Amino acid sequence: MSATRRPLIRQHSLNGLAAAVEQQPRLWLPQHAGGGAWVLWLEVLNTWAAVAGLFFSIVVSLRLGGLGWLVWMLVLGALATWATWALVQKRQRKKQQGWEVHFEQRTLTPVGLHGHSAITLGPDYSLGCYVGGDGEDAAWQLELRHARRGPVAALALIHANSGKPEEMATLDRFVSRLAQRLEIRRSGAPLPGLPRSAKPDPA
Questions:
Q1: Bridge partners of 109?
Q2: CB-based burial label for 114 (10 Å; 0-12, 13-18, 19+)
Q3: How confident is the model over 50-85, as pLDDT tens digits?
Q4: Strand ranges, E, within 36-92
């Protein structure tokens, strides 16, 4: 089986991506990498807390008792259950969204991303990484840029704690190695917490 047709292993963690970029002929860049299950459970907890607050406010404001508050509890419980299911489905869809990187062909192909088309890289492209992305803590946005057109595509939102030097070093190596294998330069501000020798030149 050729490298092109070999099933693509989909990595969803920083360490997995850092290992795959070293040797694999193709690489999967998920829209959201890392973060763990705690992100989902935090969203679920926030949903149930909001529903509980709404329930108690209804009970107090309407002075419900007996069957009345039981009905409202069932209705809001069903609503919270549906919201939890929707969150799980949304997370599952996100896990299937990303970019397939083919190093030999120097192409990036979107998977499950509407409004995007395949990109063939050239000398005007660069790879950047900056903090924030969707505003999540300890999240870093991997971005494809063009010298004249600016940002082209948000490739992956990678979770790495800036307070943990080993995680930041892994992220830095991954971004540099990815740019090297794609034969494009790395651009943007250096990542925090790195020795000067490891920092890319800002573009």
A1: 100
A2: exposed
A3: 766 666 666 556 665 666 666 667 777 777 777 776
A4: none
